[in-house]
Amino acid sequence: CGGSVNSATRSGAVGRSAGARDDRPQRRLRGGSGGRLGGTTVTMEDVWEVSADSRIASFAGRLYGRVTGNSHRGGCRTLPTLEAMGHVPISHAVNAVALCNRFLDKHGVEVPRLAFAPVLRTFVRRNIASEAARNAVEFDGGGTEESERPHRRRQSPEAAPRKSVLLHLRPVPGAQAAACVRSVDEDIIRVSRDTHPVRLGGLILSRWPSLEAGLEGSAITVQAMGPRSIETMVKSLAIAWEKAARAYEADISEAGFGCLPSHLRLTGGPAGGRGGG
């Protein structure tokens, strides 16, 4: 993950039934491309794109300003959605939210922490300049009926389907976030770069009903270290979240579960010991 090699990123799945919902008025997010994303649409002006060149600390600072500003104003501003494509940008996005939560820890339970609802997005990003070239139909010479049939349109690399991850941010009350952090050492699912996202997503989803019903703990904890492992973790959570959210017809802020990211310092680090950090 970003920062020290002696830290790992972990995400606890926070149950909606446990109160991880935002009760303030929400405006519905609509998609700029017209597509539905996991049953919900998103406006591009609410999306912050995270790239491989993005600075984690800079994004964390912007998120920190948004959360603390909301607290001072009584929660009137909508939280953004982070979009990332590729293992490094996805890792940057998750680490930025985890770092923001570290910044917020100094405020105690009075200020909420940030969780995210992960959604996998498939889209086509078209290059307007080459639109005419992509729509051109080629014909063979010779005048025969077979040769006059247009060839199948070739798909330009600019119009190839692409996949990204959307992290819909949502606030979690500080007291609830603290309770989740205290319970994470009981049962941790560790992710490697070879972990299969679909299988891991199925494992997370299998534990979700018991957690939502209050029969098991307060969080499902998933731990990953390194960009590829973090990407696998997020995609697995997105697979589980989509299935868990299908039962809800309300806004995205109320559907499924929220993933509360935090940094974990591993044994042997400069701080000499293990703890949330």
Automatic annotation (TrEMBL):
GO MF annotation terms: RNA binding
Coiled-coil blocks: none
Residue ranges of the region described as Disordered: 1-40, 138-162
Positions with biased composition (Polar residues): 1-10
Record keywords: RNA-binding
Protein name (Swiss-Prot/TrEMBL): Uncharacterized protein
Lineage: Eukaryota, Sar, Alveolata, Dinophyceae, Peridiniales
